[in-house]
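Notes to self, Gluconate transporter:
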Amino acid sequence: MSSAGPALLAALAASIGLIILLCGRFRMHPFLAIVLATYGFGLVAMGIGAATGSEKPFVDKLGTTIAEGFGSILASIGLVILFGTIIGKVLERTGAAVTLAEAVLKVVGKRHPAIAMSLIGWVVSIPVFCDSGYVVLSPLQRSIARKTGKNPVVLGTALATGLYASHTFVPPTPGPIAAAGNVGIGSDGLIWVILFSIPISLVAALAGLVWALRRTGHLESKLPDAHQTFEEYKEQFERLPSLSRALTPIVLPIVLMAVGSVAAFPSGDSTLVDGALGSLLMDLGAPVNALLIGVILALALLPPKRDAKALTTWVAEGIVDAAPILVITGAGGAFGSVIKATPIADYISSLVGDGSALGSISALLVLFGLAALLKTAQGSSTASLIITSTLAQPLLPALGLDGHLGSIPIGQVLAVMAIGAGAMVVSHVNDSYFWVVSQFSGMSVQTAYRAQTAATLVQGLTALAAVLVLGVFLL
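result:
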């Protein structure tokens, strides 16, 4: 193993470099880039095993290993990603996202428009993709800018960073769900990802808000005077759902997952809630079941006169949105399966040593750096989350990130948080969200770099600092 370890580590580094090169330089879809890198790493690993005299191949039956890895990860989280995406699409199309925005605006008030935009963005992007959320909320941002006289760049940056924070960290957004599944967090652990991601994402949103208020007030927007007002935008919906109905598809699945996790807590020789009631609560709290209930509740938001064709179209749009995430997640699972088949984790474990807290903190920095590198190179935060978490999963024990705090898989949860922080750094011209923000806010490319791109860098670094502080005390 001592002779094969460095070669395997170099092969893994080269595979990561290949993914970055194919996605960044040649604009290849991340799915194909990961598949090619997976086969490349597997073939090289087989050669290294033969060259170093291994008793058995490092990767036996490469094609079977890849297929099983692809299928197993989708079997565990595929439906969760699909259900979460469909909920977001229906909330967007029925105007529930508008209801949530208005509710936050009433609480915060129009005297603090930047704070309102940041908080509105954070709430709306939990179920809705940040790109779609910005498009939906841009009429609100522009109308508030006109009513208050606030610089549209300030409000646009506050809205963009609020959306970006929850999009990158908080399930049921598909990226964080996929990352949690990739690092091995089971159905009973997803609630902990949600509970930890909320404060960390709020810290990131606050960092973006502070940047918007202090660093973008002098920047100019090129928005023309004539634009659709928020009130005019609302008129396209037959009837907006009430706040309670808009919140239920988001909140109830989270509550069910929390209750299921509490019911599953060990208590003596059994669980905290045992028997038929305990089984029922744990079944309802399984993410796939909880989110299916969320889908059903989201469909209940449809106006009575909405035809079935519209519903079918919305669900189809949600499936289309989820498809790239699913195939990238599956490809990532295949890559992770090939990595697991090699002894590289044992070699890294020997380098790290005893897995002390210092080693774990260093590992969080490594995961952040890798995610940031992938995000900056290929543009997609979701792809960065999925690819980095896939690479990390087989190595977590060696990196000292497999520890538990009671029933909380704290090492895995903080790994997801560190990867999420890296997946924020940075949004620039190869990121579709950069163009959505710049175009709907009237920012030139130069202005968007100084506002949006710089803000996402600050957000990622601030979120990383929060994760490291938690790591010092909890790992």
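- The radius of gyration is 23 Å.
- DSSP finds 20 helices and two strands in the chain.
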